[in-house]
Amino acid sequence: MFFYLIKRLIYAIPIALAVGFVCFMLVQIAPGDPINAIVPPDAPQEVVEQVRRDYGLDKPLPVQFGLWLMKVVQGDLGRSLATGRPVWSDLHSAIGNTLTLAFAASLIGFVLGCILGGLAGTFRGSLLDRMAVTTAVAGVSVPHYWLGMVLVVIFSVQLNWLPAMGAGPGGSADWAWDWEHIQHLILPAVTLSVIPMGIVTRTVRGIVAEIMNQEFVVALRGKGLTSWNVFLHVVKNAAPNALAVIGLQLGYLMGGSILVETVFSWPGTGLLLNSAIFQRDLPVLQGTILVLAMFFVALNLCVDLIQTALDPRIKRA
Amino acid sequence: MSTSAATAELAIQAKTAVLRSEGYWAGVWKRLKRDPVTIFCASVLFVMLMIIVFAPYIAPHDPFQGSMIRRLRPIGTENYPLGTDELGRDMLTRLIYGGRLSWFMGILPVALAFVIGTFLGVIAGFVGGRTNMLIMRVTDVFYAFPSVLLAVAISGALGAGIMNAILSLTLVFVPPIIRVAESVTTGVRNLDFVDAARASGASAVTIVRVHVLGNVLGPIFVYATSLISVCMILASGLSFLGLGTRPPEAEWGLMLNTLRTAIYVQPWVAVLPGVCIFVTSICFNLVSDGLRQAMDVKG
Question: Which domain holds residue B15?
């Protein structure tokens, strides 16, 4: 296990570097001179040249990547073109909000998905099974940004029960766990939860159905265990794989929440990305994507390690 | 008991043998015909395709002709059965025309990724060794991004535009197809008939063309069809963010975007483009599931 941990950590380093390289290239593939991504378009020529030298943009590409990487490792993601503030200062509060949303959404998706998938897998072929499968297909097929709009129409416009926008009263971006804030969280979290709900339902149904067909379940039944006790055995066998799927979904949600955040004006990384795209604020775009992708790499690593730790059947040393 | 089970098994074997003797595709078709959900969804998709192909003959109005005096009419208005949008353009017409771009942007990236991904994946799986290492490790890097994020990142950097959106979506779907193609090819490569072909002196190109491709294209194709629905949602999502298509073009995601402010005035008109995306995407998903079952693809 210890060796596996070390091996997995070492393996993550080149991936992280390559992810960094892809993010670095984002500014390079942008049409026009990359210098335009750093200085405002109306800057005088001397300033442009000065910045070009300062940023090392007159050097060959690999050297530029090295210089950029050194800065990033020290936490310097550059400055926003639109606001002039360091990218990180806008980013770190946004990440908190996105995490809150992604976490709430995966919790809802996880609980519903496990219940639906578990029931469907246990009672294969029943009406319940068919309903769960339909819900799962609908969950992965629905354009969630549209679902968000529909929920706003129903619960905010028509019924006036829940707020449609923002993360707190008066458009404040600071999160707190009280009802004022939580009611802002409900609609975006539910909207975002449909994708993991569908995927978790599908996966859990598959896993449970497979386990139910295994001989040890028949043996447990034959031994005279109650269905509840049999169920506990099934859960124990299904949990590691299910957890892996859910962990990855949390990561997908962090990146995928951009559309839902746009619909609900949720002050997270998605909204930040959206405004960066509109203003062609490439440093913000690059920084946000880098941080989110790194989160995803780290999460992948954690999921892998936890899965190995939980499931003694996986020997990966 | 055991004899009856054995007989049943024999009967099943006999049945599969009969199916096999009819040819693989005849068997697939036979199974598809017995699957009402798949047939229904395929018909819905076919009707949609016909409508968007013959849009100029079917659509009642001009998709770009607006009018300031009849903006945001409700559903059921005379002459405008689905109402009008924020610039007074007929919703029905724009939904019909919008399907053209939405379908195009949902299918083309997957088709391109299918070609590129199969090519690279089969090479990685068949050649193995260092080539495999190189291709698969590069694939791993793209796997380190959530797909939405990657699509948004690339088209965000490249700027708005249909071609940029298609390029970024293709890049998003190549790595998963490579993975599937590689794993299927690796499975086929070690089978006896490939060894036999090699022993009989067939060149690598012939083996790949005759023996490998024939066995891997089916599973990869089924996997690719399951990506169409995701691609359509992503493509509309990009347009919804203002990447992808640009106004005044009719595209479902973009229409949702421009109608977003109208949800307080005509909520049910504003959500119509999403209904189209939803129906199309769920149909593609179910057809893909049906194909997977009919073609007996595992995984």
Answer: 1-34
